[in-house]
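Our preliminary data section would be incomplete without showing what the modeling component actually yields. Below, a chain of 96 amino acids is followed by its predicted structure, encoded as C-alpha cells that our downstream tools consume directly.
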Amino acid sequence: MDQMKLIITVLGKPEEADIDSIQRPTCRKFIKSLPYIREIPLSSLFPFADPLALNLLEKLLVFNLDKRIIIFYALQHPYLADLYSLKAILQLNVSR
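Predicted structure:
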C-alpha cells in the first residue's frame, strides 16, 4: 500500500467513479480511506521534460482503465512519432 500512497501523492486522489472502477476491493477501500490529495502537475516534477512526453504520461497514468489511453493510440502519440510506423501499428489489429 506504500506504493499506492506514492502514486496518489503525485496523481492525486481519484474521483469516486474512478475508485469504483478499481477491481480489487482492498485497494478501493484503502484509497477511499485516504484524505483528499491534490494532483501534482507532472511539469512541476519534471520541469525540463518535453511537453509531449508529459502529455503522453498524463494519458498513461490514469486510474480508470476505461479512461486510460490504449496502446494503439499511445503508439500514435506525437511524442513517439519518430519511433513507430503507422503500417506496423495497423498490423497490431487492436480493437477496443
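The chain has two domains: 1-40, 46-96. DSSP finds seven helices and no strands in the chain. Preliminary results of this kind motivate Aim 1 of the renewal.
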